[in-house]
Amino acid sequence: MDGRDLAAWRAAVRSETKTFFLESPANPALEVVDIAAVAEIAHAAGAMLVVDNVFATPLWQRPLELGADCVVYSATKHIDGQGRCLGGVILSSQDFIDTHIHTYLRQTGPALSPFNAWILLKSLETLTVRVERQTQTAARLADALANHPRLMRLVYPGRPDHPQADIVARQMRAGSTLIALGLSGGKAAAFRMMNALRIVEISNNLGDAKSLITHPATTTHQRFTPAERAAMGVSDGLLRLSVGLEHPDDLLGDLAQALERA
Predict the structure, then answer these.
(1) What is the pLDDT of residue 230?
(2) Which of these ranges, 17-21, 77-81, 213-217, 231-235, has the smallest mean pLDDT?
(3) CATH class of the domain defined by 127-260
């Protein structure tokens, strides 16, 4: 269902519904869902709301304060921030953790390795300065490239032309480190641009110290049909850019020259 459509949330509820799940901003086209409104619908139905908050990071969005019952992160992304290890985070009330998470861990045995846990704890010490810098750079790049003739669209949650800019203003403290770029030349143009990049690297990861770019239609969303991808806003010309810690001028120059070759 389309998470932006509150009526669709209401219509999707069944008698057995226990959990609502959403990601906002969403991967890869950066749609934004009204978390507070969806939380109200979930609670009215006797269900819990779980929010994937990876793209917003804990700096720019706090779903628990907006009514969510549980928040999850892929710690591999911004929390590690240097592409070194895998991990995840589950945040909720003490009762939820005691009742569901601790029981699950005790019965099934999954555990983060001590070394990965140490890396992630050390990385938390620099999360704020990294994400602040990445977000500032992403906003600058989005503004500089928004009207580029090779782009059909550019989506960035910090810009006033974002389709859900009013919701962004209510529930996010700043934009994301991610930018969605829609090239007018489709898959061929997207591949030409990626291959022309000299600083930005091609990878499905995000939130890294290095700037990374990926083509969702042939990677993260390749299993969906063309019609399903189109409904999700994942065109053949869509690229997802994760902005890193390189100098903004270097990144802008790299992206500009690559777009000219697209």
Answers:
(1) 85
(2) 231-235
(3) alpha beta
| One CATH from 3.40.50.300, 3.90.1150.10, 3.40.640.10, 1.10.10.10 for 6-124 | 3.40.640.10
d(CA 249, CA 152): 23
188 Cβ partners below 8 Å, 6+ apart?
none
CB 78 within 8 A of CB 138: no
Q: For 176-244, give the DSSP string.
A: -SEEEEEETTHHHHHHHHHHH-SSSEE-S--S-SS-EEE-GGGTTTTTS-HHHHHHTT--TTEEEEE--
> Among all chains, which residue has been given the structure tokens 């006033």?
160
pTM of the model: 0.94
Q: Provide the edge-to-edge strand list for the sheet that holds 70-74.
A: 19-23, 48-52, 70-74, 88-92
The ranges of the chain annotated as CATH 3.90.1150.10 are 127-260
pLDDT in tens, 78-134: 999 999 999 999 999 999 999 889 988 889 988 889 999 999 999 999 999 999 999
